[in-house]
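Reviewers of the previous submission asked for a worked example of the structure-prediction workflow described in the proposal, so we include one complete record here. The input consisted solely of the amino acid sequence. No template or homolog information was supplied to the procedure at any stage.
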Amino acid sequence: MQAKKPKSLDGILISATDAAKLIGKSRAWLAKLVAGGFVKRSNGGLYKPADVAKGCIRFMADAQRRASKSATLAAVQSARAREIELRIARADHEIIDLDEAIGVLDEIVGGLKADFDGLAASVTRDAALRTVIEGKVDEILKRAAEGLQQKARTLRTSGHATAPDAEDEAGSMGDQEPALSA
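From that input alone, the workflow returned the following C-alpha cells.
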C-alpha cells in the first residue's frame, strides 16, 4: 500500500464559515479582517487558507504594535502631565527646589550662630563661665549642623525626609507662653 501524497494548500478554497473556524474567530471578525485589508477574498467570496492565516497573523502583529505605541504615548503624556503639575505647584509656591530649601536653612542657622556667638558675653563677665557657655552653645550648633547635613543627604538620595528624632520634636515655635520654673 502506497502512502497518499499530501495535497498543496495553493489550490484549496474555503467558505467564510470555514475560514473563521480556521482562525478560531467569528465570521463577523473575519469580515473585519477583510475590510481592514488583512485578508484577501478570492473568487466567489471564498478564501485561501494560507491567506486567512497570514492575514490573521498580520492583524495580530499590527494590533500589538498599536498597543505598544499607545502605551508609550500614554507614558509620555503622563510624564508631561506630571511635569506640568510640578511647574504649577512650584509657581503656586507649594514646592521649592531642594537647594533653595537648604539655602534658607543655612541662612537661618547662620543667623542663629551669629546671635549665639555673643550670648556668653551678654550673660556674664566671668571668663570661665563664658567658656562653658560658649562650649555648650558650640555643641548644640554642631549637633544641629550634623543633623541638617544628614537630613539633606537623605533628601538628596531618597527624595524623602527622614522621620524626626524624638529629641528633634521640640514642639512648635511662636506665640506660646514660656515654661517658668518655680
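The mean pLDDT is 84. We consider this example representative of the routine output the project will generate in years two and three.
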